[in-house]
């Protein structure tokens, strides 16, 4: 009876908010006396604002802040409207325009000048360009040997190539490891396909980009080393259009050392499509093992030409 009266009082004083559950046999005395929310009166979740209700220009601004992978793998498949926006030139140009630095503005101006005519609204080469970000990025794979001997084409002589830790730090290197040569000439090489990296012919042939090369090499304290660098810019048929080479020799020195070699290809001829990067090394004393030249932090980067 007491339970019934309490239940009645509860129903009267909270008729719109509270109700007793039908089965309270499994509850303790205190829990049985506690009213609970009725399913009919529990607050309902509010519907969120759909992005598709935004004006196209606002939706474009929102989408331009997403990573290219998300745009292509997810957003493009939401609906026809989103697909048309992802497939538009405006979205990818807006993504590039978010970089307000001097270099970002220069890149945007160059990209605009190398795109198809204004009447063509398709993104054309912008999707791979924005996805791969080839300008300012090191195009050399595995530059320090952090992935072992992968990504390079090797020619092993003497005792061949190995990867070791740097004897002294190399500034700016993504990994403090290096490739080490032996007592005969050892070479390794990468050929970079610039179009596969996200660049397109009109941009490459614009005359407004530079290709910058850098390499670090060094020797051990007890043994000298010989070093060669050969970088070639090639056309679609692998014909040499530009070439840079350097050769160095060091003798045994009390301290291990690293040296940097750099070069910038400017005023690039029309037709460059590949970069061949090759370096070679060996020791000067013909010692068995790996006492030869050490190479690390190799890089090939593309930048907008400076006025």
TrEMBL record:
Domain spans labelled FBA: 129-304
Keyword Isomerase attached: no
Ranges where the record places region Disordered: 1-49
One annotated GO biological process: ERAD pathway
Matches recorded under SUPFAM superfamilies: F-box domain (SSF81383), Galactose-binding domain-like (SSF49785)
Molecular function terms from GO: carbohydrate binding; ubiquitin protein ligase activity
InterPro entries xrefs: F-box-assoc_dom, F-box-like_dom_sf, F-box_dom, F-box_only, Galactose-bd-like_sf, Pentaxin_CS
UniProt protein name: F-box only protein 27-like isoform X2
Gene behind the chain: LOC101578278
């Amino acid at each position: 009876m007491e339970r019934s009266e309490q239940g009645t009082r509860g129903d009267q004083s909270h008729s719109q908010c509270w109700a007793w559950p039908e089965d309270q046999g499994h509850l303790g005395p205190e829990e049985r006396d506690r009213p609970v929310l009725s399913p009919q009166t529990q607050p309902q979740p509010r519907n969120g604002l759909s992005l598709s209700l935004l004006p196209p220009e606002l939706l474009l601004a929102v989408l331009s802040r997403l990573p290219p992978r998300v745009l292509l793998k997810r957003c493009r498949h939401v609906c026809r409207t989103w697909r048309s926006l992802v497939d538009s030139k405006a979205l990818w140009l807006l993504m590039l325009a978010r970089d307000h630095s001097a270099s970002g503005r220069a890149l945007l101006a160059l990209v605009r000048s190398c795109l198809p005519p204004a009447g063509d609204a398709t993104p054309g080469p912008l999707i791979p360009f924005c996805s791969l970000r080839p300008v300012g990025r090191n195009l050399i794979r595995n530059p320090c040997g952090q992935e072992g001997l992968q990504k390079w084409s090797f020619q092993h002589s003497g005792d061949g190539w190995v990867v070791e830790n740097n004897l002294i730090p190399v500034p700016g290197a993504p990994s403090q490891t290096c490739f080490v040569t032996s007592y005969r000439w050892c070479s390794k090489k990468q050929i970079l396909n610039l179009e596969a990296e996200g660049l397109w012919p009109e941009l490459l042939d614009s005359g407004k980009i530079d290709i910058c090369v850098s390499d670090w090499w060094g020797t051990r304290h007890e043994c000298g080393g010989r070093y060669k660098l050969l970088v070639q810019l090639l056309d679609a048929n692998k014909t040499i259009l530009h070439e840079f080479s350097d050769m160095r020799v060091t003798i045994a020195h009390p301290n291990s050392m690293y040296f940097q070699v750099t070069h910038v290809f400017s005023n690039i001829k029309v037709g460059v499509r590949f970069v061949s990067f090759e370096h070679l090394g060996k020791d000067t004393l013909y010692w068995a093992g790996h006492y030869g030249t050490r190479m690390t932090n190799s890089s090939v980067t593309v930048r907008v030409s400076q006025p």
